[in-house]
Specification:
Blueprint: H1 8-13, H2 21-35, H3 50-60, E1 64-67, H4 74-80, E2 88-92, H5 107-116, E3 122-126, E4 131-135, H6 142-145, E5 147-149, H7 151-155, E6 166-168, H8 170-173, E7 177-182, H9 189-194, H10 196-200, E8 203-204, E9 213-214, E10 217-223, H11 225-230, H12 236-240, E11 244-247, H13 254-264, E12 273-274, H14 278-291, H15 305-326, E13 330-331, H16 341-345, H17 358-376, H18 385-392, E14 397-399, H19 405-414, H20 418-422, H21 430-446, E15 451-455, E16 458-462
Parallel strand pairs: 1-10, 1-11, 4-7, 7-10, 12-13
Antiparallel strand pairs: 2-3, 5-6, 8-9, 14-16, 15-16
Length: 465
């Protein structure tokens, strides 16, 4: 839209036509679908599930509720829909409710247009200003959402019957835009009742004032299925007024989990470059995938993708710390860096157990299970007999986080068949070699072919004999 219009006359001469917000979003969504541009950037794993249903809902002009456990990108989807609004929109200058100059809503805008006619000044607002979001809490009031009498305006001499004494809430101030409520069931039931008119008749009424604000809104909400279906905290009439309910989900496979994890990670090495072997990324993602199937974890609470992201960042940060201590420029995570994940996992999983140390015991089991799975996908124990035979002739081989990559490289030269085995993993640099060696040795230990002891930053591997 050309922003040259400064008055209502300019706007009319430009050919501007009023378009309801849902029609505006529908037209822009159809244009993206036709051109093959993603509806929302940065969303992975929903291409064949959530996003097609979302497109249908937008084309239908529905209000939408997103239902899903924590960490399923519900809020990101809602915020991403603002990109479907026109970039710039004209309003009556000074109007609180984003009034359309051709069809004003508030008393202020109506009087302004009535008084000045075609000379009414026009402002342009960016689409970011047409989005409001409220996190539902039990203490949220109708005045927060709809509005309330402003005592300061009354003290200035206005009568209570004067509409100008009102201070509008978030909903009216988002007129001609998108209004979203996160965790909708957490709203008190009496507040939910107050939203019924908003979703059906598209108007708000404030206390005893004889005013009717016909608002133009798209209403979006999120909810956790535990609150939504079992606790009954979302009243049925409100639920019925949403045109579409979308069920979100966690990544359905390891590849999608890894893609999201890498996309969202913010961990950077200090003073060096980061190289994460593919198997290290895979096993971090696999920890979350396995946790979502673990019977000891409360699956109604869910295991957020945020845990994968936090674990990935912790692993890289642990490797960065180790590299600084050892004086190495390249940062390559190893199996021995996974100890740091205990802290990033704590608090992100809810254990269904009464034992006080249940979480401390479960996390190491998840880590070991992921390491063993990554190992078994690449090797069978029989393929590595030459390596285990080497340990039969050695009392103990000491490696671990306090051992440099150069020392790992020297170790590889001594062990028959180890160099060949590394080609299935990553031997692109000394740091990658060290990481690959640790996966092989830890895999053999978890396969009960090697014993292990840990002491003072060193890990000793030796045979059972």
């Amino acid at each position: 839209m050309d922003k040259k219009a400064k008055t209502l006359r300019d706007l009319k001469e430009s050919g501007y036509l009023t378009k309801p917000v849902k029609q505006e979003i529908r037209d822009n969504a159809l244009a993206r679908i036709k051109s093959g541009v993603p509806l929302i950037e940065g969303i992975s794993g929903y291409e064949d599930t959530v996003l097609p249903s979302l497109e249908v809902a937008l084309i239908s002009g529905h209000d939408i509720i997103l239902l899903g456990e924590r960490g399923q990108a519900k809020t990101r989807i809602i915020r991403g829909l603002t990109s479907l609004l026109d970039e710039w929109t004209p309003i009556v200058a000074g109007a609180e409710l984003n009034d359309d100059p051709l069809k004003p809503t508030s008393r202020y805008a109506k009087e302004k247009v009535g008084e000045m006619g075609d000379e009414t000044p026009i402002e342009w607002i960016h689409r970011a200003q047409r989005y409001s979001e409220k996190l539902a809490t039990p203490d949220t009031s109708m005045s927060d959402l709809i509005g309330e009498v402003d005592p300061i305006k009354v003290a200035e001499g206005r009568y209570l019957s004067d509409e100008y004494t009102l201070h509008y809430g978030l909903v009216p101030r988002t007129n001609r835009g998108i209004f979203a409520i996160n965790e909708l069931p957490d709203l008190a039931e009496r507040i939910q009742v107050g939203l019924l008119n908003l979703l059906e008749e598209r108007d708000v009424q404030i206390r005893g004032y004889k005013i009717r604000l016909e608002l133009d809104l798209m209403f979006l909400a999120t909810a956790n299925p535990e609150d939504y279906t079992n606790r009954g905290r979302l009243i049925t009439p409100l639920k019925d007024r949403f045109g579409t309910q979308l069920r979100t989900h966690y990544p359905k496979n390891l590849e999608i989990e890894m893609a999201i994890m890498k996309q969202e990670s913010s961990a950077l090495a200090v003073g060096g470059k980061v190289h994460v072997p593919e198997f290290m990324s895979e096993l971090v993602a696999d920890i979350s995938q396995q946790a979502r199937k673990n019977p000891s974890i409360n699956q109604r609470s869910g295991v957020s993708v945020r845990m994968s992201v936090a674990n990935y960042e912790s692993m890289i940060s642990s490797a960065t710390r180790r590299s600084l201590i050892l004086g190495e420029e390249e940062v390559v995570p190893r199996i021995s860096d996974l100890w740091a994940l205990a802290s990033s996992m704590s608090g992100k999983i809810e254990i269904d157990a009464f034992e006080p140390d249940a979480e401390k015991e479960l996390i190491p089991r998840l880590l070991s299970s992921a390491v063993l799975r990554a190992f078994r996908q690449r090797y069978s124990v029989d393929q590595l007999r030459g390596i285990t035979s080497y340990f039969d002739s050695q009392e103990t081989v000491e490696l671990g986080p306090s051992v440099t990559s150069a020392e790992y490289a020297s170790f590889v030269e001594k062990v028959p068949g180890l160099s060949d085995a590394l080609r299935k993993l990553d031997d692109s640099s000394p740091g990658a070699v060290a990481s690959s060696v640790e996966l092989i040795l830890e895999g053999l230990h978890l396969s009960k072919k090697l014993n292990k002891r840990e002491q003072s930053g060193r890990v000793g591997y030796f045979t059972k004999g």
